Amino acid sequence: MKSSFHVLCIENLRVFPQVEKKLKALLTDEELKTVHHINNFDFYLSSSSYHPPAILEYFNNTVQHFVQNKIPFRSWAHVEWNTLKEPYRLIEDSENEVDKAVHEISFTLI
């Protein structure tokens, strides 16, 4: 069964191999090609600190190929907060930015 969408899996390097192992048991090789791993550390700290506008820019650059080519995609994101001093304000800022992106480019956020 060919997947009708791609999945961007924004996950840490420690957890992703476990996710990948489970997916290999469930998906065909062709379907596995539609799963794209993005290191969540690189994604969320691309500007050297957690900064929602920089994260949105990174995301937009990442999904540009899918949007331009009208390739449906979904996104899974694992955010780790244990190193941040004020995560609640940052979570709210980030969620606001993500909400804008979801509406602008119309994708499913898992």
What does this structure look like?
By secondary structure, this protein is α/β, with parallel strands linked by helices. It is built from 5 helices and 4 strands; from the N terminus they run E-H-H-E-H-H-E-H-E. It has helices at residues 16-26, 29-32, 40-44, 52-68, 87-105; strands at 6-11, 35-39, 73-77, 108-109. The chain has a 4-stranded parallel β-sheet with strand order 2-1-3-4. Helix 4 runs parallel beside helix 5 (87-105). The longest helix is centred in the C-terminal third of the chain and has 19 residues, at 87-105. It starts with 5 loop residues before the first strand and ends with a strand. The mean pLDDT is 81.
> How far is it from the N-terminal to the C-terminal residue, by CA?
21 Å
User: Main beta sheet, described?
Assistant: 4 strands, parallel
Mean pLDDT: 81
Strand order of the largest sheet: 2-1-3-4
Order of helices and strands: EHHEHHEHE
Q: Which regions have little confidence, pLDDT < 50, spanning 5+ residues? A: none
Approximate strand percentage:
15-25%
Radius of gyration: 15 Å
Number of strands: 4
Helix-residue proportion:
40-55%
Number of helices: 5
Structural class from helices and strands? alpha/beta
Overall spatial form: globular
